[in-house]
Write a structure and sequence with these properties.
By secondary structure, the protein is an alpha/beta fold. It is 25% helix and 23% strand. The protein has one domain (2-253): Ribonuclease Z/Hydroxyacylglutathione hydrolase-like (Metallo-beta-lactamase, Chain A). The strands form two sheets. Strands 6-5-4-3-2-1-13 form a seven-stranded mixed beta sheet. Strands 7-8-9-10-11-12 form a six-stranded mixed beta sheet.
Length: 254
């Protein structure tokens, strides 16, 4: 299985992650923060499914641009997989003719730009050779992480979340689990803000790690770019094990 954090910056700052998208085997995306900006457009056109963890802007920012770029009136539309609340948010607040044309209404008379597939917690579905299980997290709005399993290895993408228990209970039962991409948003000096916005700091990240009762590859994601060095310094002070940050543009194989 190949996983890549999509670059969301231009130039020498590519190590920072401003918006969120992951590519799985070049054909499935998790979140649409920046897939609409990938070059060449042929990379976008390879995507058949986009899984939306939730509707916060850094996870959907490029969705309208992406759908325009891959639109083909004579082909199958891209499938957007999302929970019901995320679907309602996207339709009400993005595709509403004010922020972006109402693609749902337009599809009544034109070839559709996309189709919805409703995801529900712990209900596994298939995309080609990939088995996808949405994992409920604890965030400001209903949010999913994902277990992606190709039959040989499995990877968990644990998106925006405060500390949780149910997700780790589920992942502890997955025999193929090889890696976890886990969010790490704020330094310890902003622990209050992290709590209010329901994100992790180095100390809570480490506590979440200990809830998984097996050895896996851990990759930190979602570091606030201007706070990156402080976050890494805090982590070094708290842990004897070095942290691995998933670098945008790097392809990870499991």
């Amino acid at each position: 299985m190949k996983i890549q954090v999509v670059e969301s910056t231009i130039g020498q700052s590519a190590r920072h992650q401003f918006t969120v998208s992951y590519l799985i085997n070049d054909t499935v995306a998790i979140d649409a923060g920046c897939i609409g900006f990938m070059h060449p457009v042929a990379r976008q056109q390879k995507l058949s499914h986009v899984l939306l963890s939730h509707s916060h802007f850094d996870h959907i920012a490029s969705l309208p641009v992406f759908l325009e770029n891959v639109y083909c009136p004579t082909g199958d539309p891209v499938v957007l997989c999302a929970g019901e609340e995320t679907q309602r948010a996207v339709e009400s607040h993005v595709f509403n003719d004010r922020i972006w044309p109402d693609l749902v209404r337009i599809a009544q008379t034109e070839a559709p730009f996309f189709s919805w597939q409703t995801m529900r917690e712990f209900e596994t579905f298939l995309i080609g050779d990939l088995s996808i299980t949405p994992i409920p997290l604890d965030h400001l709005i209903p949010t999913f992480g994902f277990l992606v399993d190709d039959g040989h290895s499995a990877v968990a993408i644990v998106s925006d979340t405060a500390p949780v228990t149910q997700a780790w209970d589920f992942l502890n039962r997955q025999p193929n689990l090889n890696a976890v991409f886990l969010e790490l948003s704020f330094p310890e000096s902003m622990a209050g803000l992290a709590e209010h916005t329901m994100h992790l700091t180095p100390s809570t990240f480490l506590r979440e790690q200990r809830k998984l009762e097996r050895s896996v590859n851990w990759l930190a994601v979602h570091l606030k770019s201007t706070l990156r060095e402080e976050i890494l310094s805090d982590f070094s002070a708290l842990s004897v094990s070095p942290i691995v940050v998933a670098e945008p543009g790097t392809e990870y194989s499991f």
